[in-house]
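New to this. Please check both lines:
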Amino acid sequence: MWINIKIVFEENILTNSNMVTKEAAYKKISELVERFEEQYASYKNSDYNETLTRRDFIDPFFKALGWDMDNEQGYAEAFRDVIHEEKVISGGASEAPDYSFRIGGNKRLFFVEAKRPSVIIKDDIHPAYQVRRYGWNAKLSISIVTDFEEFAIYDCTKKPKHTDKASVARVKYLTFRDYLKEFDFLWNTFAKESVLKGSFDKFVQGSANKRGTATVDKEFLLSLDSWRTYLATSISRENKELDEDEINFVVQQTIDRIIFLRIAEDRNVEPYGNLKTAIQQGNFYQNLFNIFKEADEKYNSGLFDFKKDLISKNIKVDNKVIKTIITELYYPESPYEFSVLAVEILGSAYEQFLGKVIRITPAHHAKIEEKPEVRKAGGVYYTPQYIVEYIVKNTVGKLIEGKTPKEISKVKIVDPACGSGSFLIGAYQYLLDYHKNYYSNNGKPSKGKKEDTLTPEGHLTTAAKKRILLNNIYGVDIDVNAVEVTKLSLLLKCMEGETKASIAHQLSMFHERVLPTLENNIKSGNSLVSTDIYENILFEVDKKTKPFDWEKEFPEVFVERTEEPDPKEELKRIARQAKAHAEKALEYSTVLSEKLETVFEPQVNYGKTNKGGFDVVIGNPPYGFQISEDQQKYFEKRYKHQDYQKDFYLLFLERYEYLLKEKGILGVIISNTWLQSITLKKIRAYLLNNYEWDKILLLPKKVFNAIVDTHVLVFQKEKPRKDHSFLIEILRDNDINLSHALIQSEIAPNGDPINISIDKPTKDIYEKICRNAKKLFELATVYNGVKPFEKGKGNPPQTQKTMDEKPFVVKGKKPDKNWSALIRGSLINRYINLWNNDYWILYGHWLAAPRNPKIFQAEEKIMIRQTGDSLIATIIPGGFIGRDNLHIIIPSPGINIKFLLGVINSKLMDFVYTNINPEKGEALAQVKKKHVEILPIKEINTKVDKDVLLQSEIIKLVDQLLKLHEEKVNTKLQSEIEQIQRHIDFCEDQINIKVYELYNLTFDEIKIVKGNIS
């Protein structure tokens, strides 16, 4: 998902004092067009080369649009607007996307591939394939090919094929003669000023990212699965002494090593084609293994540690298998450009890869299957990058804001269910960027300042990157392969920017290998189960349980740490943090007013001894997995804030308190059921009373394309202060926006369900409505409908045959007089019953959950649809049986049923329902009986003329609506249907007005109600 640039880079973008005006840009591009037209023939000559085209036309073109093409601002290479000729190796020759346009120093927007004017861009396949390949691998939405004469924009979300015509995936094509009449488009889309304002995003959203595109991470997953299957089959057949676990291990290690070295080649760290030397003669696998051993001398990463890996050295693999895998990693067979393929993108593929396991058939063929726990959970869901960045920024970013590298070196960050390492990669990248900015003065080093932490190009040195990685980043996962992938991802991130020269320099000058070993930072184990499990026999402890003692595994984290800041540095820190807090205060002042000082109070107590633990816990804990009965026994003994319906993510929510030091920060994306489910009171009360809530980000869209709805929590481990406010933010239309603030102490501390989407003005109106009304159950009786079928229920108990044949419900003609009309939820709309003599039920004790027949014999009752997330009701006459997806309301004597129906179907009651049901708008939302029973209904005071008059008018309008809906159903002429609908809309509007008046809402309150509903 593309998140608006103004959000992602809100802290990195400053106004460019050299930014050009639109008028000046038009004038400059006019001059370029005129010059090209005047000397068109000479520029079309093949002697006029690409370099001249770039210098004479393409550079000035983009400079006119406000881009610092020549780095006139003097930024270090790592901070430039435009990188020229990023190195990409393809087919053994050095090629590159000629320009990489960026914002914030390290965020690519699009590539531009330059050609000389003699190239026919409109029809030539090669340049189109070339730029699409670069953009697809970098997971950019669009990129451009231009020779100034022609300007072609390509959708890079579609997988490129070398046989594609030049027109494939092209979203816009211009010639230089179109530039002036299309100038508004060029300026609004590609001018730097416009990019910063978000218009580039809008173009991207409208032009790319279509459904069904083969993204590079999905394609890479297919390749990984193919290589794994092929390799595992060969190893199983040739090495019959290995069991499944050993085969899974050696296959994973071999693929990881190959991928690492292949990426190193494309990044100019290893000689291009080095892996190909292994498939020229002899035993290809042994040749490959020798390359692995040489790599250990350079990298020391643990990835090539053959003291711990005792399997890989002696295995046998078919030459054909090794040759196929290696060949498919090189152009032209390979669509991948590893020089621009981000580590984060690889992680997305690997996350899915880790959800699968190799099974060996009796015939020694390999089958790739989803792990049982993954299959039960409905698959693996990789956390989108924008969520990772949001969590990292609001946890790691908040904690290190204004600190020096020396202070940051003591910060410990962990993901206790790290998977492929996406959160740890995000945290590591944030730390690298922060340090790079700190040392370089945001890309402009101070004159005369000597720092050994930066290279001449403005990148962090290898030593600095290694130091940050080892000091700050920790991870645990129960899956040993996940741990290896996390290490691989972190090492690839650490290796970014390295060259053959830099590695050789370290080896020769310092006798130091380029990468650190991560054995002490990233470990495999069960984050929820300690070795105390061995003390009891509650359940059998097998090798899959993997008990893990955090304090023994990370003693440097769980010792008590004393902070003793330098007095001068402390003063500087306070000044920096005060400035940062002032900026935050300005940003949120209109929302939080006097509460700001509690939200943005400094988070670290310097000069005090803090208990051990991690400073930051981040991640996406597993949820949806079923917990075995034996495991439940252990968790019931060790975890005290769980209700009977356990889920792994709920256990993690309790475990985090142990992992965090005092005032440590938690940032996770989890299922939102903990806030809403009536069965999860313990965990809700625990979190409310033991953490100070900082932010909750609401995610209305299914970010994992799954049934589960999620949100992001940013909490701090400390007892909440009485007046503490926290922020509710919301993702809407690809922007993250502040919604409102809430005071934590105003939330019921007993664990009742919490609806955080309600701001204070909305809550005040809701409470006013409730104060002036009675709950529905005081004025009527609410019943559930009839459940016809459930195995084991009914008299006699229903069997599987009963479930399959469903003999007590029929559709069509009524079988005989013993059958009754059956109403289902889908047949109920507002003010209309769509039953059409076609659903019948044989009522009796044989049903799974029959109700008292008197309920259905009542002359009139209201039925409300259960499925859906709003109130939909109508009046049903006596004799109809309501199914269990309906709620049945029978008013008490003296309560007018039509008045009650009008109020229930009104917009005001929809507003009320939004406030009492936190699940409204969520997946599989239902109108529950307990919510219907507490609807606040205004009781009519017969001594108050206004109440009596309003009730009478509402009853008349409901009478009209019942007749109008019946008339509409029986009308066939479309023009008449439209006229009836206008009358229906008028009547409903009038009911809404009268209900607002009945509940004494003011004009301003009505505006809030309407806005809340929409």
User: Anything to note?
Assistant: The first helix runs from residue 5 to 8. Residues 1-17, 87-94, 446-450, 587-610 have pLDDT under 50 and may be disordered. The longest strand covers residues 660-671.
